[in-house]
Structures are given as C-alpha cells and as structure tokens.
Design goal:
binds coenzyme A; Aminopeptidase; about 170 residues; 7-stranded mixed beta sheet
Length: about 170
C-alpha cells in the first residue's frame, strides 16, 4: 500500500541536502559514516552526469492539492540507468526518513525505479549489505532475488549481496 499524500518527483539540486540528510540518519549512514555534504556533492555530480534521483514528497496541508508534491521530502531513490555492469539499471541508494517508514514510501520509490527502467532492460539490480536484514526482506517482497555475494566489497567484514529482478518480457 502507498501513502495517498505523496508524490514521486525528480529531485532538484536544492533537494539533495535533504535527501543526503535522510541517508546519513539511517542505519547504513551510521554504519558507513556517510557525511551529508560529501554525499550531497556526489549526488549533485551524479545528477549532472545522467543519474536519476527521485524524491518522495509530502503534499502540504489544507489548501494544497493532494499529490502536488510540494511538502517535505520523505525519502529518495538514486538510480544509475546503466550502473550494473554498464548495462542494467542499478539502484545505487534508497532511503526513507526514519519517522516515515512502513507507510509504503519505500515501495513507491522502488516502483519508480522500475518505471524509469528503459523497456529493453532485462534486469534491475542493486547491492545490499548482508547486515541489512530489513532491506533484504523489503526487496524480496518486491520481487528481487539474491544473485551473488561480494565479500569485503565496500568495507572489510561486510558482504554486499547482489539482488536482481528480471523484468516481465
Ligand atoms: C528499506 C527502506 C527504504 C524501506 O522503506 P519503507 O518506506 O519503510 O518501505 P515500505 O513502507 O514500502 O515497506 C516496509 C514495510 O512497511 C509495510 N507497509 C507498507 N505500506 C504500509 C502501510 N500503508 N501500512 C502499514 N504497513 C505498510 C510493508 O509491508 C513493509 O513491511 P515490513 O517492514 O514488515 O517488511 C527503509 O527501511 C530505509 O530507508 N532503510 C534505511 C536505508 C537503507 O537501508 N536502504 C537500503 C540500502 S540497500
């Protein structure tokens, strides 16, 4: 189920600090010592070189149209359109504000990742850290399956799990 009062919109440059702050204030942000300014800068450079960053925005209160997407940023997804092996759409990072989880915001962002994939893309791909059980279950519920393991890929002692979703023909 998806919150009715959110819109998924293309993130603007001025949104990136809010997105980065959400990622920093998450389990993976703490575990990997994300720095807000560094991450926002990486996202800005990625946007400028063809990445897609979508934000889930809350509609403002009474008087604003539901779905106008003009309120606070609740979460975001950073998509590299050919980031997996220079071929498949790759979900580089997804994060939802800790107070807004379990309301379908993540599902809406993941659905947008699928929608943005070119029709010819056969697979969608992402990496998830082995300790991130909740995210692994979340992805499995949305049709992703484990396809490989990369021990010590990002940091020593943590295995990154490759998960893929085959698109319907
Ligand atoms: C992984 C993540 C993006 C999921 O976002 P989310 O907004 O919580 O995702 P959803 O709400 O769509 O789904 C999560 C749960 O809410 C439940 N849910 C969804 N809509 C719901 C609704 N309207 N009412 C109640 N529950 C709902 C889902 O069934 C799911 O249940 P589960 O927690 O038992 O699996 C989020 O946990 C997050 O930001 N984690 C930190 C960053 C991170 O680890 N990112 C992944 C990097 S690989």
């Amino acid at each position: 189920m998806t919150r009715a009062d959110i819109s998924i919109v293309d993130a603007k440059l001025c949104d990136l600090e809010s997105c980065a702050a959400i990622a920093c204030d998450s389990e993976i942000g703490r575990r990997y010592h994300f720095d807000m300014e560094t991450l926002a800068g990486s996202m800005r450079r990625a946007l400028e070189s063809g990445a897609i960053i979508v934000a889930a925005r809350e509609a403002l209160g009474p008087g604003s149209a539901v779905g106008s997407g003009s309120g606070a940023i609740l979460g975001f997804a950073w998509i590299d359109p050919r980031g997996a092996f220079g071929s498949a759409p790759y979900l580089k990072l997804i994060a939802v504000d800790g107070k807004e989880r379990s309301g379908g915001v993540g599902a809406a962002l993941l659905a947008e990742f699928e929608r943005r994939a070119p029709p010819k893309a056969r697979m969608l791909a992402l990496l998830v850290s082995d300790f991130n059980d909740k995210a692994i279950v979340f992805y499995e519920r949305h049709g992703f399956a484990k396809a490989g393991a990369l021990p010590d890929f990002a940091v020593d002692g943590v295995t990154e799990i490759l998960m893929v979703k085959r698109r319907a023909p």
